[in-house]
Amino acid sequence: MTAAGDWIGKVGDVWAREWPRTERSFAHLEPLLRRAILSVAPDRGQFLDLGCGVGTTSAAIAAAYPDTRVTGVDLSAAMVAIARARHDAPNLRFVDGDVLDMATSRLDDLVFSRHGVMFFADPVAAFTHLRRRVSAGAPLVFSCFRGRSHNRWALELADATGQSVGDDRSYAPDPFGFADHAFVADLLARTGWSVESSEAADFDYVAGEGADDAAAIADAIAFFTRIGPAAATIRTAPDHARADLLERIGTRLARYARNGRVAMPVSAWIWTARAAGEPA
């Protein structure tokens, strides 16, 4: 389980150090999410990117709509610093902090997020807050992982490390917190959002690259020792067990190695909703 506070400290710092790898892993999802955002975005207004990370999606939307003002918000100051260094545009800014604590001088006209909505301690309170800070009819677009059975990286790492696969039908603030379609649909309805669509988005999760397959596997192992649910297990394993654990992970990753890439089939939901009546 990853609490929101973890992103302020150690988790956010690790993601900041690993940002080229994390961006690579989502590179094939990015255009799918971007297309969904662009299909409903107004021509002008104030846009919010929730959990903006190092700013890839924020910058793309700001470039597509120069008459808007795009604000990317993330709990991690380290990632926001990288976003500022990577992207500079007159209609784009990045802020570190908790969006639930931030006042706004005017209502947002669009909220979007790439995998940044699954870590709220209280998702009902969070989405109710988001509804209250947007104008009537404003769109909300976000991506989140589908269940573990649709995401080979999760299954392979759980198998290699002996971890429990987990239950996608109950909410916990973690990468699969929004995997249950019925839960998310009910959450949005309860918090003042009217669902327009929920589309499955299949893509290749590129975990490793290198000059050959062996180098790509080594790169993927290095990635998963720092990012994801196996990282803590690997880090805390006794010295005598760590080598065997890494070998088991490497054996499973080798199944997906082709032409110097480790690309694993994964799937996300892309949700689109609009602000409806006031939440109860």
Task: Write a structural description.
The structure is a single chain. This protein is 40% helix and 23% strand. It contains twelve helices and eight strands. The protein has two domains: 191 residues, 3-Layer(aba) Sandwich (Rossmann fold), CATH 3.40.50; 57 residues, no CATH class. Strands 1, 2, 3, 4, 5, 6, 7 and 8 form an eight-stranded mixed sheet that branches.
Topology:
Blueprint (H helix, E strand, L loop, with lengths): L3 H5 L1 H8 L1 H7 L4 H11 L4 E6 L5 H9 L3 E7 L2 H10 L5 E5 L13 E5 L8 H10 L6 E7 L6 H10 L19 H10 L2 E17 L3 H12 L6 H6 L2 H15 L3 E2 L2 E15 L5
Parallel strand pairs: 1-2, 1-4, 2-3, 4-5
Antiparallel strand pairs: 5-8, 6-8, 7-8
Helix pairs in contact: 2-6, 4-5, 8-12, 10-12
InterPro entries: Methyltransf_25 (IPR041698), SAM-dependent_MTases_sf (IPR029063)
Keywords: Methyltransferase, Transferase
GO molecular function, one term: methyltransferase activity
Number of helices: 12
Structural class: alpha/beta
- Helix percent reads 40-55%
Strand content: 15-25%
- Work out the count of structural domains: 2
Keywords: Methyltransferase, Transferase
Organism: Sphingomonas hominis
GO molecular function, one term: methyltransferase activity
Protein name: Class I SAM-dependent methyltransferase
Quick take:
The chain has helices spanning 4-8, 10-17, 19-25, 30-40, 56-64, 77-86, 123-132, 152-161, 181-190, 213-224, 231-236, 239-253; strands at 45-50, 68-74, 92-96, 110-114, 139-145, 193-209, 257-258, 261-275.
